Amino acid sequence: MAVVKNPKKDKGSGTGKELVKKDNRKEVTKKAAALKPNRLENARSFFRGVLNELKKVHWPSRRETVIYTAVVLVSVVFVAVLIWVFDLILGSVMGVFIK
Question: Which letter does DSSP use for residue 17 in this model?
Answer without folding.
Answer: -
